[in-house]
Design goal:
By secondary structure, the protein is of the alpha/beta class. About 50% of the residues lie in helices and about 15% in strands. The structure holds adenosine monophosphate (AMP).
Length: about 220
C-alpha cells in the first residue's frame, strides 16, 4: 500500500502519518524530517537547504526527488509507505509516478487533510516537540500533563522548528496554495483523491483516514 497525505502546513499530516505508521505498519516518509536531519548533520544537502527551509520556501525539486528515490529503495519501504510532505509540486508528482511505474508500483490513495488557512497560523506557531522522543505538543491545544515535562519520556527539553514563526508560516501557506494545491486536481483526475476534514479532533481524522485506507486495501 502506497499512500500520500496532502494538505497545508500545520494541517496534521505528520501526526496522522505517524499514527498510520504505528497502526497500519506503513513507514512514514517525511521529506521535511529528512531535510531537517540533513540540516542537523551538516551534510552538503543540509547546508544548501537550511536557509530555504527557514524562509518557508520549497527546496528544489531535484533535491527532494533524489532523496525520495533513494528512500523508497530501502527494505522497510518495500512493504508500503505513507508520504508526508511529498510531492509538493507537479514536477515531483510526475517524477514519483515515473519512479513507481519503473518498479511496478503505484499510489493507491491520496488523502487531502483539508484545513482552512484561518486555523493554521495559530496551530503552527504554538507547536513544539520533545527534543528526545519527538512527541508533539501545542501551547494551547495539547500541553504536557505536567508543565515542562514530556508525557511520554519524561524529558524536560523541548524544541520549536525555526520555520514555525509567523513570517515563515505565511510564506509556507503561499507556497502551498501556489505550488502544491494544483496536485489536488492532478490526483482527482486519476480517481484516487479522498478528502478528509482536518478540523475535526485528531482521533476522528484518524478514523476517517483508516476508512479510506481500508477501502483502498479492498480494491487492491
Ligand atoms: P514540512 O516538515 O513538510 O512542513 O517541511 C518543512 C520544509 O522542508 C518545507 O517548508 C520546505 O522548505 C522543505 N520541504 C519539505 N518537503 C519538501 C518537498 N517535497 N519539496 C520541497 N521542499 C520541501
Amino acid at each position: 500500500m502506497q499512500l500520500i497525505l496532502l494538505g497545508p502546513p500545520g494541517g496534521g499530516k505528520g501526526t496522522q502519518a505517524k499514527r498510520l505508521q504505528e497502526d497500519a505498519g506503513l513507514v512514514q516518509l517525511s521529506t521535511g524530517d529528512m531535510l531537517r536531519a540533513a540540516v542537523a548533520s551538516g551534510s552538503s544537502i543540509g547546508q544548501q537547504a537550511k536557509a530555504v527551509i527557514e524562509a518557508g520556501k520549497l527546496v528544489s525539486d531535484d533535491v527532494v526527488i533524489s532523496i525520495i528515490a533513494d528512500r523508497i529503495e530501502m527494505p522497510d519501504a518495500k512493504k508500503g509507505f505513507v508520504l508526508d510532505g511529498f510531492p509538493r509540486t507537479i514536477a515531483q508528482a510526475e517524477a514519483l509516478d515515473a519512479m513507481l511505474k519503473a518498479r511496478a508500483r503505484r499510489i493507491d490513495a491520496v488523502i487531502e487533510v483539508r484545513v482552512p488557512d484561518t486555523y493554521l497560523v495559530e496551530r503552527i506557531t504554538g507547536r513544539f516537540t520533545c527534543a528526545k522522543c519527538g512527541t508533539g505538543y501545542h501551547n494551547k491545544f495539547s500541553r504536557p500533563k505536567v508543565d515542562g515535562v514530556c508525557d511520554k519520556c519524561g524529558s524536560r527539553e523541548f524544541v520549536r522548528r525555526p520555520d514555525d514563526n509567523e513570517t515563515a508560516v505565511r510564506t509556507r501557506l503561499e507556497a502551498y496554495h501556489r505550488q502544491t494545491a494544483p496536485l489536488l486536481p492532478y490526483y482527482e483526475r486519476k480517481g484516487i483523491l479522498h478528502v478528509v476534514d482536518g478540523t475535526l479532533p485528531i482521533a476522528e481524522v484518524a478514523r476517517r483516514i483508516e476508512a479510506v485506507v481500508a477501502a483502498a486495501a479492498v480494491r487492491n
